[in-house]
Amino acid sequence: MASIESTKTSAAGVFLEKNMKLIAGLAAVLLVFVVVAVLGTSISSKSIEKGLSQVDAVEYAFRKDIDGLSAEDFKARQDESLASLEGLVSKGGIVGIRANMLKAEILFEQKNYEESRTAWVKAAEAKKSAYTAPVCYYNAAVCSENLNDLDAAVSYYTSAVGSKDFYLIDHAYFSLGRVNEARGDFEKAVEAYEKIESLHASSRWANLAKDRIILINSAKSE
Q1: Measured between alpha carbons, how far is 203 from 18 in angstroms, rounded to an integer?
Q2: Which residue has the higher pLDDT, 38 or 71?
Q3: Is 0.90 topped by the overall pTM?
Q4: Which domains does the chain have, with CATH numbers?
Q5: 122-142 pLDDT, tens per residue?
Q6: Which of 63, 88, 130, 178 shows a CA-CA span of 20 to 30 A to 189?
Q7: How many angstroms separate the CA atoms of 58 and 49, rounded?
């Protein structure tokens, strides 16, 4: 009789290999969608406007003609941008959020997942009610997976799905289920997968989740 562990290794392995492009977290891509999110913060203050202008300047300098850079020049630009952000990441409010998100993205590209995670969490906790917070927690979870810190990944994905308005909530719940499967907690995995169906039964993530539930329950019955 095949164990749940062995079934998971074979079936889940094939499934994840075929669908990795679809289910993998993409921190750098996510940033593009949230930098213009409404944070509910007034920017009438001159100091805030100045701070945002500084972050914008760093980001513009970082991205300008980036596709034509050699690997060496790209690394140098990353380091320059990180240095330029140091005076901004300690600020509160929207300036600190934007600065830490850009810092986190650059560090993620450098595969410095530990420090990237720290920056994502700092950005999230700067204003937990902001629309950016669940995205930052999601990316912190992605970093945790890259660090093979699955317990932390579960914690951050759980924080991400805590916001009902999170536009990637189905993806986040699927990732939560997937990580719980990897941890061997199949009950929690099924709970996460079932949550997707209760929220958006016709979504592609709900369909993928149904397949995972079938495989888990099938392995239990063998």
Answers
A1: 19
A2: 71
A3: no
A4: 1-37+131-222 (1.25.40.10), 41-128 (no CATH)
A5: 999 999 989 999 999 999 999
A6: 130
A7: 14
